[in-house]
Design goal:
The protein is α+β, with helices and mostly antiparallel strands and 594 residues long. The protein has four domains: 116 residues, Orthogonal Bundle (Butyryl-Coa Dehydrogenase, subunit A, domain 1); 104 residues, Butyryl-CoA Dehydrogenase, subunit A, domain 2 (Beta Barrel); 153 residues, Butyryl-CoA Dehydrogenase, subunit A, domain 3, CATH 1.20.140.10; 173 residues, Butyryl-CoA Dehydrogenase, subunit A, domain 3. It is globular and about 75 Å long. The protein starts with 29 loop residues before the first helix and ends in a 7-residue tail after the last helix. About 3% of the residues have low confidence.
Length: 594
Amino acid sequence: METKTQPFGAGFLLYDTDPEEVVTPEDLGDEERMLMQAFSDFAEREVAHHLEALEQGDTDIGLELFRKAADLGIFMAEVPEEFGGLDLNVLAVTGMCSIRAKLGSLGSLIFGHQGIGMLPLINFATEEQRERYLVPCMNGEMLSAFALTEPGTGSDAMNITTKAVLGDAGTHYVVNGGKQWITNAGWADIFILFAQVDGEHFTAFVLERDSEGLEIGANEHLLGQHGSSVAALSLENVHIPIQNLLGEVGKGHKVAFCTLNMGRLKLATNSASGARAAVEVASRYAAERTQFGRPIGEFGLIQRKLADMAARAYAAESVAYRTSGLVYQALEAKAGNDRPTLDDKLAMLSEFSVECAMAKVHTSEAYNHLADEAVQVFGGYGFSEEYPPARMYRDSRIARIYEGTNEICRLYAQRAILRRSWSGRLDLSGTQDQTDDSLSAVSYDAALGSGSRHLDITNLKSVYRHLTAEVCAAVQRERMFDAENQQLMASLADIAIEIFATESVFLRISKGFSGSGLDGMELYEDLEQIYFIHAVDRIRQEANEILAALFSGPGLAEQLRKLDDWLPLPVGLIVYRARVAKVLLQDGGLPVFA
């Protein structure tokens, strides 16, 4: 398989990637690490001892910490230098987002404001709007919320019914409608509001809290994130000045999708940090808790659980940074020595929107699963609110719904891949007609470090392309509608996600071998093998489901035989787990990247 050094959206399905071209956490520079340390110190010094009060809904403490976060410069991160901001690049922002796991439910307040609340202002506001709204938001004097979702339109965001009509005087829009599940609604000073101008032109506005006719409901009683504010908005003949139009009439989708794609990128790092934290909490407890006269970490099933958790957390982190790196490197290449323009950002986020959606799915599900496993390691104590896993478990669940549900992200990613294939931008047919032997002979090989590492990642890509061709043929032949083909699309997406994750782990470790400063490479090779085996199992499961839906009898048997030729069997899993668990128990979790 050819190595491609100029990445493009979903190109990983066709080309091998040079390890030196991939971005990993180990690539963060001194400036990014200093920022991460400052934010981490803030979380430990200012937030940690208030986590319980935040869980009890203490608004005063939440807003006080919000202002302290502003003083630290968190809200300056993406603001251009000409407005007094730090103008951090995508990679630096990714590093900053890794502190979210330490903030508890304060993370919803801070990153709801810093991310989806401020980003539309950064990217689309006029100069006057930036002076009036962005600068105060950056300084912590104003709090912004993103108001898109409605009671009848969650995932179907483009079909909102909130309506805006230009008033007779031409000085303001009259807006009627309602919004739901708006993060920070109870505290926000402004809302990035989406409405249909004249009932048909999807448009963004800046809505001020004290606008007559705007009513903010009571905070929702949530499963998790108890220290956050999530409420509904009701708008009855609300007047919004024409000066508060954000972007252009009918171009609100640009505001929404640019924000949501970047939000998915950030949420991936947020979730990966939560997954790492779950491993840390579970490892420390397993090393301390004794049963039957010895630490529970010495028991095989706990070691199995810890090692599997660590492999999945490491993969989530690898996926998050690789995806951010794709956008970062593309923006750097596009802009050169200049600052990336809005058009550059829109283009690159669109180009890698498949990877952003996949990263969001992969990391959020890892976070949620690992939080659940941490509860299990703690046993009965894990079910008590007195111990960290209970809050982790509750708080992690929303990540699979934020920024587009994982079901929507799966469908989006797979359909975007198909659209690119059909338009000729992504040739998925390149190796489908090769023989079984030639397919199984082609794979990533890396003679790195002290020995040779070999993963059949290219075989996994061949499986994906073969199944995609079969599904597309069946959908066209049988004229399947969404109710019938969504499950097939989701299974294909899951296979693509596992390929992306497995390759991300492989590339990160390969780059580590070549000199990025990783010590004790045996641990990382073991993590790689554990994740690879689990990924192959998931791919086999989804592939079997697809093939059983498309074939029967001898045809199905032949397809399953091909699949077995392409997919390796698990070897050495018990040994890998034991070695990984030993390190986790000694170090209290995964080593911090060097």
